[in-house]
Amino acid sequence: MTGTDPRTERPRTDPRTGRPSTDPRTERPGADDAPPEDYRLLVPRDWFRIDLTLDRWRPQLKTFADRQAARRRMSAQAARGLWATLRNTAESGAAQGAIELFLRSEVDDTGATPATLLVSLLPMSGALYATPQDLARSVAERRGAGAAVTVTELPAGEAVRVTTATTLDLYVNMPGRAGYLLLAFSVPLSGVESPLGGLCEAIAASLRWL
Known about the structure:
4 helices; globular; 33% strand; 28% helix; two-stranded antiparallel sheet; alpha+beta; single chain
């Protein structure tokens, strides 16, 4: 992330419940044996944030879609397609544990194609816990040859990195063997090998446990 990009800290949510937390903001002192109470992620202010744990996320998402359609002067059919795509992304994510959705518009000759970040909580405690190496093997088997799967190190800890031409998924290992926080980026127009893809990498690197 470049120094000129405006950033915003997301509001606190407890990663164990996905609900807002009222505890004081204090960064964890590095204890690896206890699950974190929260996380901090720095995202530029021009990414539209939707809290998927709240009932009003659909009107918020519709607001974003309508603004994009008006700004890009999209046809009614294209606007309906954009709304359907975004709604399906959010509904699918929420059903699989997503707690936040960020959107940033990309522009091509036909309209607005949003880049997205879905943040999901994947609890894995006790016997269900998989090490990053085991998780990487499982993901590689499931995704097949179309995705590159590696284990990498982020400031927040070990992570399983899964990339395709237009997607970047980072399963970040939570302290205390509590599971993973999944940062799922989609960059459908410019691809991950682009300045916007580099920005996604910088957002992921900003993750800290609290």
